[in-house]
């Protein structure tokens, strides 16, 4: 019985060790698979984010350049139109002024020298006024162009920054969601694997215990049968011995009686 118990304990220990090794191997494999899946997902999502951001930046830069070019063209056209209008107005005013002055001077003073002097003075004044007006107009136009271009650039840069930030936030949120989903799925898979392995271990242990119990029962039955057979053999031997003894005793008694009867008969004859 002690040997049977030792065998049972050894078998159970071996089964437990094998099951533990299998569980460890399965858990290691699952962890490696999880890590690989997470790394692949993160790398793919990062590549997608980078590509999307680059595309968005390129598109926004192209749009900004086009807008700036269009604005500059429009501003240049406006400046040219304004300059032409100003020049035409100034020329018309010059002509009118010169004609009026000449007419007035000719009517009032008939000397040619005075007419020439007055005309020269008027022309100089008109030229100075034209230069001043042209400088002022150019400065105003340049200031307006600079202000408009700077404002457009600032607005476009702000739009670019907002778009890039929004795209980055959306992509980061998407990456986080994907990683969380992958981790949850992997955790669920690990839990399922562990549960299955535990169930298998329990089933194996139960089967081993049942087999061992059956073996023990068979051994016990065999021992009992052997004991019963031995006892029966002993009983038969004892019975045979007793019968033999009885027969011997009976035979001896009969022989004694015969001998005694013979002796008595001999004495009577004498």
Automatic annotation (TrEMBL):
Residues 27-196 form the ABC transmembrane type-1 domain. It is a multi-pass membrane protein. Keywords: Membrane, Transmembrane, Transmembrane helix. This is ABC transmembrane type-1 domain-containing protein. It comes from the Eukaryota. One of its GO terms (cellular component) is membrane. It is found in: Membrane. One of its GO terms (molecular function) is transmembrane transporter activity. PROSITE patterns: ABC_TM1 (PS50928), NA_SOLUT_SYMP_3 (PS50283). The chain crosses the membrane at residues 7-40, 46-73, 80-107, 113-137, 144-169, 175-197, 233-266. InterPro entries: MetI-like, Na/solute_symporter. The keyword Translocase does not apply. It comes from Dreissena polymorpha.
């Amino acid at each position: 019985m002690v040997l049977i118990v030792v065998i049972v304990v050894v078998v159970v220990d071996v089964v437990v060790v094998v099951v533990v090794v299998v569980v460890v191997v399965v858990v290691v494999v699952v962890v490696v698979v999880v890590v690989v899946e997470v790394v692949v997902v993160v790398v793919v999502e990062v590549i997608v984010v980078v590509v999307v951001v680059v595309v968005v930046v390129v598109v926004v830069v192209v749009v900004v350049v086009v807008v700036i070019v269009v604005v500059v063209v429009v501003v240049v056209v406006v400046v040219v139109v304004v300059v032409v209008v100003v020049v035409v107005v100034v020329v018309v005013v010059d002509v009118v002024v010169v004609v009026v002055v000449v007419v007035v001077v000719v009517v009032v003073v008939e000397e040619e020298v005075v007419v020439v002097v007055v005309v020269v003075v008027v022309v100089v004044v008109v030229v100075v006024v034209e230069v001043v007006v042209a400088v002022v107009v150019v400065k105003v136009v340049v200031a307006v162009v600079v202000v408009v271009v700077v404002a457009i650039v600032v607005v476009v840069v702000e739009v670019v920054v907002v778009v890039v930030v929004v795209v980055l936030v959306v992509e980061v949120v998407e990456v986080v969601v994907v990683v969380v989903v992958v981790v949850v799925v992997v955790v669920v898979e690990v839990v399922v694997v562990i549960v299955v392995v535990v169930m298998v271990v329990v089933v194996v242990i139960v089967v081993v215990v049942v087999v061992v119990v059956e073996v023990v029962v068979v051994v016990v039955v065999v021992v009992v049968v052997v004991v019963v057979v031995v006892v029966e053999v002993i009983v038969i031997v004892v019975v045979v011995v007793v019968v033999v003894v009885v027969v011997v005793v009976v035979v001896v008694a009969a022989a004694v009686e015969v001998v005694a009867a013979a002796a008595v008969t001999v004495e009577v004859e004498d």
